[in-house]
Amino acid sequence: MIVHKDKIMFRNCNKFLNTEKGRKAQTKNDGYKKLRNDIKEKGIINPILCIKENDIYKICIGMRRFIVGLELGIKEFEVKVLPNDSVDLLVKEKQQYRHTDVQ
After folding, report:
1. How many angstroms separate the CA atoms of 93 and 103, rounded?
2. Where are the chain's structural domains?
3. Contact predicate 36/84, CB 8 Å
4. Which helix (H) or strand (E) holds 34?
5. pLDDT value at residue 102
6. Of 75, 76, 48, nearest to 62 (Cα)?
7. What is the DSSP letter of 48?
8. Is the pTM of this model over 0.70?
9. ∠43-38-71 over CA atoms, to 5°?
């Protein structure tokens, strides 16, 4: 499913990332530059895993991909909507990711 960036947010437990200051802090992460280069070269390979609350898609896995995408000017993101954000479900879903994506 393709979703416009304005409909995607971070969950309340990560609400700091909804601010410009919070997103900028993520760019200092060691893997950030590698991920940015990878996405710039190949695009975003794996969808962002989200739960849907009302009309908003809240990110469970893929926070750095979303931040990099915003930085690179991406306006629409592929998301996979999960029924809930239980740890077991997130681990199972992430195991299906292609290994070429560094997050």
Report:
1. 13
2. 2-94
3. no
4. helix 32-42
5. 43
6. 48
7. E
8. yes
9. 70
Which pLDDT value is given to residue 44?
A: 93
> Taking Cα atoms as reference points, which of 34, 100, 94 lies closest to residue 64?
34
Which amino acid is it at 18?
N
Return the CATH number of 2-94, one of 3.90.550.10, 3.30.300.20, 3.90.1530.30, 1.10.8.60. 3.90.1530.30
Give the separation between CA 51 and CA 39, rounded to whole angstroms.
Answer: 23
8 Å CB contact between 79 and 1: yes
Residue 101, SS3?
Answer: coil
Distance CA 32, CA 23 (A): 11
Q: Tell how strand 48-53 and strand 2-4 pair up.
A: unpaired
Q: From 96, 13, 22, select the one nearest 66 (Cα to Cα).
A: 22
Is 80 exceeded by the pLDDT of residue 45? Answer: yes
